[in-house]
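dude i think i finally got it to work??
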Amino acid sequence: MTDKVNILIAEDNPKDAEFLEQIIADWGVPCGLERAHNGLLALEMAVKQESPLVVSDIQMPEMNGIEFARSLWQRKPTARIVFWSQFKDEMYIRALARIVPPETVYGYILKSNTKERITSAIRTVLLDEQCWIDPEVRKVQGRAGHSQTALSDIEFEALVDISQGLTDNLIAQRRYLSRRGVQSRLNSLYAKLGVDQEQFHSEKAGDAFNLRNRAVAVALRRGLINAFELEQEEEDFQVWLKRFKSSQGSD
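look at this
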C-alpha cells in the first residue's frame, strides 16, 4: 500500500494515545495521524473523512466508544474501527453486536496484549481490511450469544433496574408493567443468571440468598454491568424520575 493512510486515534489517555501513534509510525507506511481526546470530538473529526479508519477506546468522556461507533456507522457504514480497551465486559460485547453493520470490518483488541499483537490487530483491520477479534473477547461473544445464558433486552433492562435499587413498584411505573409483569421479568433474569437454582439449594440448607443482591453480584462477575455504564444509566433514571415526580404532583 503506497497511498497515504489517515488514521484517527480516539483516546482520552495521553500515554495510551502516544503509544498508538508510535506503533503506527513504526509501520513504515505513509500515515496521517489525528487524535481526539473524547468521543464527541472523534465523531466530528471522523465524519469528515470518506472512509474513516479509527482506533477507539471504549470508555471516553462526552461519548463512549460504543455510542461513537454507532453514530459513525450510521453516517459512514464503511468506516473501519478497532476497539482497543482494557475491558471485555459482556455488556460491551452485547452492545457492539447490536450496532455493527452487516459485512463491516472491525476489530477488538485488549490493552493487556503485547505490543506486537496490538500492532498486528490494528494493521489487520485498518490496512488488510480483515476483522480481528481478541481471543478473550471471542470467549465472551460465545457466552453472550448462547441462548441459555445470554440475556434478552428486557432481562438486561431488569438487571439495570435492580442494580439501581428500584422497587417492584417503581420498575412497574418506569417500564409500564404490572407487578406480575415485573416479577415475570425478574424470574426470567434470575433463571438466566442461575441464581434461582442457587437459592433453591440454599433454602434447603436454611440459608436463602437475597435474589436481587445475588443477581447483581453474578452480573458484576460476568461483566454484564460495570460502574461506568451504571453511571450513564443513573443519569437516564434521574431524568425519568424527575419527570415522573412532576407528573405525580400535577395529578
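The CA atoms of residues 61 and 220 lie 22 Å apart.
im so relieved honestly
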